[in-house]
Model the fold of this input.
Amino acid sequence: MLLKDKISGVGTALVTPFTPTGEVDYAALKKIVEYNLSCGVDFLVAMGTTGESPVLSADEKRKVCAALVDYTGGRVPLVMGIGGNCTASVVEQLQKTDLEAFSYVLSVAPYYNKPCQEGLYQHYKTIAENSPRPVIVYNIPSRCGANVEPDTLLRLAREVRNVAAVKEASGNLANIGRILGGRPADFAVLSGDDSLTLPLMAMGADGVISTTANVFPRQMVALTRAIHEGDMAKAREIHYKIAGAIRLLFEEGNPVGVKAALHIQGFCENSLRLPLVPVTRNLYCRLEEELKKGN
Done:
């Protein structure tokens, strides 16, 4: 992905590793970052759901992002998650956060208060007008209780210059197809669901913001590049090889599955912060067996 182009390819939604006593494990974070970069991921995403951002303090968020900037050294673009269900608070975060080294802001749809479509439009319009970086809308109604409908998303894409892309995790292929069919040429659509990356990119999506790429960066890169190159047979082969692993990674929620897998791979401790807890022993053992296959 070149900065002059719209965002595309594989972006890894990074975990935030913790030590057994609950502190941020920066050595483990560096290992995961280096592994992803060595496998060719196109960009990295910090402070998302997978990064357990709701349980990090403001100071921890700042330090993790500074470490990520240091570890990447400008080798790939960076995306920072800044969102919430109070528009004014999100604007305040944008104004107080150092985004100099970041290329985009990923902002989740407002949760709990369930705004109408006009409220969602005004929320994102206000954020975009106050953001020093282009905004990626993160639509995930299963977590937020509100869906950014295609008409609202297309209105943002056409009318608000600083809204650059959407991470689509609604799972509604018909709605996503409407977005793909009606979007401006410079507006990117990224899959927010690893299991739907193949069908969405076959429909014209530009890439994926991927949790699975923490564990399988090489495979996710190969999958998206095969689609971009028109080699759908190869893309299907890769998709089916890792489909079982993807199901296991999300069986008990995210990021509990991916942290268990990273622990099995030797990248970090299997540590989370409450209210999240590690996967059950049964799932851990099945992940071990799946990862032994090599995929």
